[in-house]
Amino acid sequence: MRATAVRPQGDWQPADTITLDYHHRHRRRIRLRTDGGADLLLDLAETTHLRDGDGLDCGDDGIVRVIAATEPLAEITGDPDLLVRLAWHLGNRHLDVAFRGTALLIRSDHVIEAMVTGLGGTITHSEAAFDPESGAYAHDHG
């Protein structure tokens, strides 16, 4: 199968599913295997951030629904002033960050976590799908 377009979550019925972590959901071209065992070539015109529930349009082969895989995450908390400082440090390292209420969420990384705790932040570990902020210059379909 060859996916050349992305359909936002909608009323279509999937022919198959594919479970991908964040790294594999931000691509332009890559060879993958669906959850049903089919080979899939993701062949998009430009790099796209795939979100949970999006569909990969494979033409006559149907639509393959994207499922965001759970992965190890670090939830960073602290007082508001500290969170602003920590957000600056994370951005300065070009890390992907998601926002959950009054917490920052990053993919687990012991080096970054040591920096965060060294600056006074608190880390709580969890596993969930990671969907970071896309940024001011992103040209996302959703």
From TrEMBL:
Residues 2-64 form the UreE urease accessory N-terminal domain. GO terms for cellular component: cytoplasm. One of its GO terms (molecular function) is unfolded protein binding. One of its GO terms (biological process) is protein-containing complex assembly. InterPro entries: UreE (IPR012406), UreE_C_dom (IPR007864), UreE_N (IPR004029), UreE_N_sf (IPR036118). Keywords: Chaperone, Cytoplasm, Nickel. It comes from the Bacteria. It is found in: Cytoplasm. Its main location: cytoplasm. Belongs to the UreE family. Involved in urease metallocenter assembly. Binds nickel. Probably functions as a nickel donor during metallocenter assembly. HAMAP family: UreE. This is Urease accessory protein UreE. The gene is ureE.
